[in-house]
Amino acid sequence: MSDNKPADGANKALFYDPTEHRIRSFVTRAGRLSIAQGRAIETLGPKFCIPYQKETLELSAPFGRTAPTILEIGFGMGETTAKIAGGMPDKNFIGVEVHTPGVGSLLKLIDENGLQNLRLIQHDAFEVLTHMIAPASLAGVHVFFPDPWHKARHNKRRLIQGPLVALLASRIAPGGYLHCATDWEEYAQQMLEVLSAEPALRNTADGYAPRPDYRPVTKFENRGLRLGHGVWDLVFSKR
To answer: Which segments carry the region annotation Interaction with RNA (predicted)?
Structure first.
């Protein structure tokens, strides 16, 4: 488990619904929204949150500049997202998450770190990709530590499935990339199979990729590595 996920007691808010061939959002309980998170949403949300809309978003508009844009699906509490954005000031980042405490947490980090290159959308990722993101407009996509749905009967709910990968590939510009990471080996194997089957993508490694320097190792990941648990990164480029 990584700290790029929601806090303990909150369910990961994205899963794949095979009956509709799309991502679904759900929250079995709202989770605890701290006073600081609520204040961040109230005071910082108007500037740093992009409202969902059923029309194409001009990616430069929320940032006031044109720069390569990277979209992240499911940023959890946002610590990793903030570190990556802080380390790449020349790029724009859009994080998509439905978990309200996570949105508040990342807004706090944006303020504390003075990040001007990060914006958030609190909405279902499939609808954001379908309606707001133009084809071939993204420089990259990050999907870090999605829920592994480790019980066999729930595997079909995993986020990384063929239809979503095809949609992601259509939104990435030629030469752009899709970076997934998981700490669940069986899910890593499925990811590798699904991503390799997408004709618009090419694996940048022979199987799993070394962890790119821009993805920080979280405290939970470090703890797992010390216990002998694995972490698998997959980095595919758009043909």
So the answer is: 153-158
Bigger pLDDT: 6 vs 127: 127
**What CATH number does the domain containing 22 carry?**
3.40.50.150
* 1 lies in some domain: no
In the numeric block, which tokens belong to residue 209?
A: 């990729």
pTM over 0.85: yes
17 catalytic residue (yes or no): no
220 carries a ligand binding annotation = yes
Q: What percent of the chain has pLDDT over 90?
A: 77
Q: Is the dihedral of CA 59, 64, 68, 74 positive or negative?
A: negative
Residue 6 lies inside a defined structural domain of this protein = no
Please check whether residue 139 is in contact with residue 68, taking contact to mean a CB–CB distance below 8 angstroms: yes
Residue 233, beta-bridge partner list: 181, 209
Catalytic site residue from 8, 147, 206, 213: 147
User: What is the four-CA torsion angle of 108, 110, 112, 113, rounded to 10 degrees?
Assistant: 160
The answer to whether 72 is a known ligand-binding residue is: yes
Q: How many domains does the chain have?
A: 1
